[in-house]
Specification:
The chain has 112 residues and is mainly β. Helix content is 12%, strand content 45%. A hairpin with a 2-residue loop joins strand 1 and strand 2. The longest helix is centred in the N-terminal third of the chain and has 14 residues.
């Protein structure tokens, strides 16, 4: 068996073990939640499914700093840039998974 045929067979076997997504499934839907005085909405970029982040509104009377926590399939997870948000303001933290990632599996955030 030639090397390229063997490599293709190994790849096909590995892909067969992956769970199948239903037709039309592109990944996790945007989520919205409140944590530590922040109202946050997660998102995945329309044109780059490996880029995602979180937009957060500060509903407290003090400044809050947070960052996105992005779970990347079969690639290292990503921590987004730190965003400092004044009371009543909105900030964004985002990041991009490695090109070999199987996609964004989850986006959360951490108050620093």
């Amino acid at each position: 068996m030639k090397r390229s045929v063997a490599s293709a067979a190994v790849l096909a076997a590995a892909l067969a073990l992956l769970p199948a997504l239903p037709a039309g499934a592109a990944g996790p839907a945007p989520a919205s939640s409140r944590l530590a005085g922040l109202d946050c909405t997660t998102w995945i970029h329309n044109n780059d499914p490996l880029h995602g982040g979180v937009d957060c509104s500060n509903n407290t009377d003090g400044t809050i700093t947070f960052h996105a926590d992005i779970t990347c399939g079969w690639a290292p997870d990503v921590t987004g840039n730190s965003a400092t948000v004044a009371p009543g303001e909105v900030g964004e933290s985002s990041g991009t998974c490695a090109f070999y990632s199987t996609g964004i599996g989850h986006i959360g955030w951490t108050v620093e």
